[in-house]
Design brief:
Length: about 400
C-alpha cells in the first residue's frame, strides 16, 4: 500500500487524478459550508468541489480516495465500471474506494462530501470563511479562484510558486471575475493572493509569446489588454478591497489606487520597479499616486523604484491599515464580514458618489498610460530588462 500511497501522492501533486482531486495549490482559507443538521444542496456540493481547490494542506491519500469515491457516488451513483487489474494500482485504489460505497444514495454521498470538505477546510490554518459561488463560471484555470460567502466575493490569485505573477489568461479571468462580482449578490469584493506573496506583477514570460504579427502586434494587443483590465477596476461598482497578504510588485501595486480599501500584512512590501524594467507606470498610478502621496513620494516609487514597507505605504495613503502578520487573516476577515452586513445598495451608491467624479479622468489617464507603455515595450531598455530577467531564470 505504501507504493500505491506514494504514487497517489505524486499524481495528486501532478494533478493527474480526475476532478475533483486535481488540487495542487492551497491558500490559507477556512470554510464553513453548511451545518451538520442541514442537507447539502447541489449548490453546496458544487461549492465544495471548488473549495477542495483551496485546501491549504494535502489531506493525504486516504482522504483523497474518500473524496474521490464520494464525488463519483454523488455524481454517477454506485460504481458502474469494471474493476481495474491488480497492477493498475491507482485506478484499482480509486475503484475500491468507490465500490465500497455500495448503494449509498447520491444525495447522502453529496452530503457526506460537503461535510468532509467542510471539516478539511475547518482544520486548515487561517480563519477566513468562504464558499465558492456555485452559480459563477469558474475561471479557465486554477490560477484564479473565485469564492463567495457571507456577502463577500473573493478573487484569489493562485500561482504561489510564481509569486502570483499575472499571465495574460489571468488578466482575462480577473476581468471576467470582476464583471460577475459586480453583478452578483455580494456586498463587497476582495482581491487577494495565495501563498507568501500577494502578486509579483506582470508575468515577464508574457513577453515571450510573440504572435505572427511580431512584437509590434504583441505590444498593441498588450496595450489593449492593459487598458481593458484597468478599466474594469475604474468602473467596478461595489466596494473593492485588497487583502495584501505579502509583497506586491508592479501592476498589483499601481491598481491599488483604484481600490476602496487596502489592508496589508506588516510583511507586505510595495515595489514598482518600472524604470529598472525600461517601462512606465500604469493602473492610473501616474495620477492616483501623486494625488495621494504628493509628486515627490510618487516619483520615488514610480520613477526610482523605491520599495515601500507596509507601514510606509500606509503613511503615504496607499494602504488603509497594516496588521501584524500573525493575526492578519483573522482580523481582516472579521472586519470584512462585519462590513459586508451593511446595506449593500447604500454602500454601492456611496462608493459611486465618492468615485464617479474621477471616472472620466481615470479612463483618460489609463488610455494614455497604456499607449505610452505600448511604445516602451518596443524599446531596447525594456527588451534588455526582460531578457535579463528571463536569462537569470533560465540560469544562463
Ligand atoms: C508586450 C507584452 C504585453 C503582455 C501583456 C501585458 C498586460 C499588462 C501589463 C501591465 C504592465 C505591468 C507591469 C508590471 O507588473 S512590472 C513588474 C513585473 N514584475 C517583476 O519585475 C517581478 C519579478 N520577480 C521578482 O523580482 C522576484 O521573483 C520576487 C521579488 C517577486 C520574488 O523573489 P523570490 O526570490 O522570493 O522568488 P523567485 O524570484 O525565486 O520567484 C519564484 C518563481 O516565480 C517566478 N516569478 C516571480 N515573479 C515573476 C514574474 N513577474 N514573471 C514571471 N515569473 C516570475 C520566478 O521566476 C521563479 O520562477 P522559477 O521557480 O521557475 O525560477
Amino acid at each position: 500500500m505504501a507504493g500505491v500511497a506514494g504514487r497517489l501522492g505524486r499524481l495528486w501533486c501532478s494533478g493527474a487524478l480526475s476532478s475533483p482531486l486535481q488540487v495542487t495549490r492551497f491558500p490559507a482559507l477556512q470554510l464553513h459550508l453548511c451545518g451538520p443538521a442541514m442537507r447539502a444542496s447541489q449548490k453546496d456540493f458544487e461549492n465544495a468541489t471548488n473549495q477542495v481547490k483551496l485546501l491549504k494542506k494535502d489531506p493525504g491519500n486516504e482522504v483523497k480516495l474518500k473524496l474521490y469515491a464520494l464525488y463519483k457516488q454523488a455524481t454517477e451513483g454506485p460504481c458502474n465500471v469494471p474493476k481495474p487489474g491488480v497492477l493498475d494500482f491507482i485506478n484499482k485504489a480509486k475503484w475500491d474506494a468507490w465500490n465500497a460505497l455500495g448503494s449509498l444514495p447520491k444525495e447522502t454521498a453529496r452530503h457526506n462530501y460537503v461535510d468532509l470538505v467542510a471539516s478539511l477546510s475547518a482544520s486548515s490554518e487561517s480563519s477566513i470563511q468562504v464558499t465558492p459561488a456555485a452559480d459563477r463560471k469558474q475561471p479557465g484555470s486554477d490560477a484564479l479562484v473565485v469564492t463567495s460567502q457571507d456577502g463577500i466575493t473573493t478573487i484569489t490569485l493562485n500561482r504561489p510558486d510564481k509569486k502570483n505573477a499575472l499571465t495574460t489568461q489571468m488578466y482575462h479571468d480577473i476581468m471576467l471575475a470582476l464583471e460577475a462580482a459586480g453583478k452578483d449578490d455580494s456586498a463587497i469584493t476582495v482581491l487577494t493572493g495565495n501563498g507568501d506573496h500577494y502578486c509579483s506583477g506582470n508575468d515577464l514570460t508574457n513577453f515571450t509569446d510573440i504572435p505572427p504579427g511580431g512584437v509590434e502586434e504583441k505590444a498593441r494587443s498588450g496595450a489593449v489588454l492593459l487598458r481593458d483590465f484597468v478599466d474594469c477596476f475604474i468602473d467596478f461598482p461595489k466596494p473593492l478591497v485588497a487583502v495584501v497578504n505579502g509583497p506586491a510588485v508592479g501592476i498589483s501595486v499601481t491598481i491599488l489606487g483604484l481600490f476602496d480599501i487596502v489592508y496589508a500584512t506588516d510583511r507586505a512590501t510595495f515595489h514598482t520597479p518600472f524604470s529598472h524594467l525600461g517601462q512606465s507606470p500604469e493602473g492610473c498610478s501616474s495620477y492616483t499616486f501623486p494625488k495621494m502621496m504628493g509628486p515627490s513620494k510618487a516619483t520615488e516609487m514610480l520613477v526610482f523604484g523605491k520599495k515601500l514597507t507596509a507601514r510606509e505605504a500606509c503613511t503615504q495613503g496607499l494602504v488603509t491599515e497594516v496588521f501584524p502578520d500573525s493575526t492578519f487573516q483573522k482580523e481582516v476577515w472579521v472586519r470584512l464580514k462585519a462590513y459586508s452586513k451593511l446595506p449593500p445598495n447604500a454602500m454601492r451608491i456611496s462608493k459611486q458618489v465618492i468615485r464617479n467624479t474621477e471616472k472620466e479622468k481615470l479612463h483618460a489617464v489609463n488610455a494614455e498610460e497604456s499607449n505610452i507603455l505600448r511604445e516602451r515595450w518596443l524599446s531596447d531598455e525594456c527588451m534588455n530588462a526582460v531578457v535579463s530577467f528571463l536569462s537569470k531564470k533560465a540560469k544562463l
